[in-house]
Amino acid sequence: MLSADIMSELTQTRIIAKPTWLERHTAFRRGAGAMLVSLSILLGHIPYTPYAAIPVSVISLLMQCMAFALLSLHLKTSAVMAICLVPLAVHWPHQVTVADGCVLYAASLGMMLFVFGRSLLPSQQPLVAVMASRVHGPLRADIARYTHALTVFWTMFFAAALTTPPLLFWFGPAGIWQWPLSGGTFAMALLFMVMEAGVRRLVIRNFQHVSLRTTITAFRNTHASPMQTTTSDA
């Protein structure tokens, strides 16, 4: 009777699977996924002959499916996506490449707009203020106001970057709508970051400013952790 109870307990015990190698190495998954997406975007923007249109489109989509598999660990979903998208890339390579670029552009900027815009809600703390407090600790009143204004600026920038391509498509010269997708928005964002670093040093005095690299690291750490729900002191 005792042995039967033991066997019954063993058969009803849920076996907990050990995490796989990819699940244990989150940093590797994120880095490899980001690299694959970046390479796919670069591949879609380099000049190529019409004969290379199909390989470029197919390889770019496969890279993105692999990146999705690494970042989400949804291997079956990634395989289904590849099976559905690759035939489209074979039949309509140019159209799929353009559509893929638009989707990546809208998804990345939409995420940034959501992150920055959401932090401006009354129940949240401005994202730039969170980044600054992680580096410098409690913020002075003037710095808190500046970080709030800077969060508003980047929210407006990402909103403008999202709406610019469709506006140029409808009202601009032919083909100019692709300029933001081909690196124009990234160049403008980099230019504004450099300009802001100079303006910040003129506006905020008697303060230990940090480098752009430290700022980017603070953003990554802030974006990876839950947003604080307390508002900054004015």
TrEMBL record:
This is Uncharacterized protein. Keywords: Membrane, Transmembrane, Transmembrane helix. The chain crosses the membrane at residues 52-71, 78-97, 103-121, 149-171, 177-195. It comes from the Bacteria. The lineage of its organism: Bacteria, Pseudomonadati, Pseudomonadota, Alphaproteobacteria, Acetobacterales.
